[in-house]
Design goal:
75 residues; elongated; mainly alpha
């Protein structure tokens, strides 16, 4: 944008990107996604035993999930 400034054109970042977008000059960025599930492994895959279950009281069916947290390396 220094060229625009030298030409006396004042434009902010958001307006600049609006101009680029309106003229189809922006590149769509790929979202980085962390792969958290690997279904192709040698471990046993168990069937869903609660799929047809109808709970009769509280705390009869419990489930669990894994949450990944990125941590900085020590140091």
């Amino acid at each position: 944008m220094p060229e625009l400034k030298q030409s006396g054109i004042k434009i902010g970042r958001d307006k600049f990107f609006d101009v680029l977008r309106n003229n189809h000059l922006l590149i769509k960025s790929k979202r980085c996604r962390t792969k958290t599930t690997c279904s192709y492994h040698h471990f046993n895959r168990y069937k869903n035993v609660i799929e047809a279950a109808i709970p009769q009281r509280c705390n009869e069916i419990w489930v669990a999930d894994i949450t990944y947290l990125w941590l900085k390396p020590p140091g």
